[in-house]
Amino acid sequence: MRSSAHITGGSSMRIATMATGGIGGFLAVKLSKAGHEVVTIARGAHLEAIRTNGLTLRSTDGTEVVHPFLATDRTDEVGEVDVILFGVKGDGLENAARACLPMIGPETVVVPFLNGVEASDRLTEILPERNVANGVARVSTTISEPGVITQTGTFNSFIFAERDSKPSARIDALRTAINEAGSSAPETQDIVRDLWSKFVLFSGLSGVTAAARCTIGDIRTIPELEALFRRAVAETTSIGRALGVALDADIEEKVWASMETFPPHGRASTAIDLEHGRPLEIDWVSGAASRLAKKAGIDAPVNAALYAVLLPHKNGR
Ligand SMILES: NC(=O)C1=CN([C@@H]2O[C@H](COP(=O)(O)OP(=O)(O)OC[C@H]3O[C@@H](n4cnc5c(N)ncnc54)[C@H](OP(=O)(O)O)[C@@H]3O)[C@@H](O)[C@H]2O)C=CC1
Ligand SMILES: CC(C)(CO)C(=O)C(=O)O
Known about the structure:
- It comes from Marivita geojedonensis.
- Residues 20-155 form the Ketopantoate reductase N-terminal domain.
- Belongs to the ketopantoate reductase family.
- Keywords: NADP, Oxidoreductase, Pantothenate biosynthesis.
- Helix content is 41%, strand content 19%.
- The chain is an alpha/beta fold and 317 residues long.
- The chain has two domains: 14-189, Rossmann fold (3-Layer(aba) Sandwich), CATH 3.40.50; 193-312, N-(1-d-carboxylethyl)-l-norvaline Dehydrogenase, domain 2, CATH 1.10.1040.
- A five-stranded parallel β-sheet has the order 5-2-1-6-7, with helices on both faces. A four-stranded mixed β-sheet has the order 4-3-9-8.
- The chain binds NADPH dihydro-nicotinamide-adenine-dinucleotide phosphate and ketopantoate.
- Residues 19, 21-24, 41-44, 46, 73, 87-90, 92, 95-96, 99, 113-115, 137, 139-143, 269, 281 line the site of NADPH dihydro-nicotinamide-adenine-dinucleotide phosphate.
């Protein structure tokens, strides 16, 4: 096992997925297939299934199975890696970040893909700032059974950059790896704007589909739900602007237009988690919008109300 890491663009990289759920599992399959040395961090029945049967990705393109270089819950046996693809649910960030420490060398880059706008800052509370990047995922994937990741829809793009959005060799190398693996990692000039652009959409989508137990189709066709969604989106846009984020002038129209690109039966992961009695990421979405509104000195009553009605279900059943 290699113990030091050097990124050379276009060559094989040593990549860990912390952890190997919808996001990490999808990328682990793609990057393993492309010849990278992928270490999948997982636990419980999911880890056992990956060890026994490999990691499976089911999508509209068919089924792909890979046997990762190493599948483990022991990050202290991994050694240093070039990249950590960081995808856990919001409440698990701190524990998972601490578990990353033994895999981090001077040049390792940790790329978070959590929903919300605070993951990168939270990581810097635990990991050295020079090792932390920032990122946003546009994909729809889930662990459908232990060892199996299922992708719904065909869109998949992963936008990431250094925290200050400046170009770097390690980010370029990862972008090349993901693009060559058949996924998509477009360049960005402003990762904070990208994060907030998704957050503006997601605050409406997550809050409304979960609180109203409804689908995207319902938001598109029931005027009262459309109005609620648009008010959440408008509030989050104002919060971002008040905090200095350079959101596009027509972001609200773009967000509404993007609702057409989702299948009508679609819902945010928050609504699906609610239905299954799983913990909700609301502290990092509607809750974050309300919290950041206070910081920005503006009112966000719709996000606050969406957060409040979901709070009793926050810890799942
Ligand atoms: N999946 C998607 O399509 C998208 C997801 N996102 C965001 O990305 C983030 C990750 O989502 P997703 O990948 O779907 O989440 P998942 O719940 O599918 O995967 C997270 C995995 O991490 C495991 N895990 C958490 N902490 C640890 C740990 N310390 N050690 C080992 N394993 C650990 C969990 O295990 P266990 O179940 O045992 O807790 C679970 O298997 C979320 O913020 C989500 O909102 C954003 C865009 C799209
Ligand atoms: C809306 C979607 C699928 C977009 O990537 C998402 O992020 C989620 O539901 O968690």
